[in-house]
Amino acid sequence: MTSIDRHSLKGWVIEALRQLGGSGSIVQVCQRVWQMHEADLRGSGELFYTWQYDIRWAAQYLRNTGRLKAVHGDRRSAWELSEDGWSDAPHVT
Description:
By secondary structure, the protein is mainly alpha-helical. The protein contains four helices and two strands. The longest helix has 18 residues, at 47-64.
């Protein structure tokens, strides 16, 4: 079994956004991640209690590395894949 940690969320965010057509609200992304990875999250130990915080960390990491478009200070903006986010392999490091 693969170990699940906060780094796993980076790939899950990209996966969710691709399924949402490239952009979505934090709620839509979290719903999609939960639908796809509920069992993984339930079995992840402490991450189960922090994943909705940690997913925001993952999104910021993806912005910093150019895989998500910048939100320009508006934290309520939809999360949107950049060109690099679309072209990345599903497992982001």
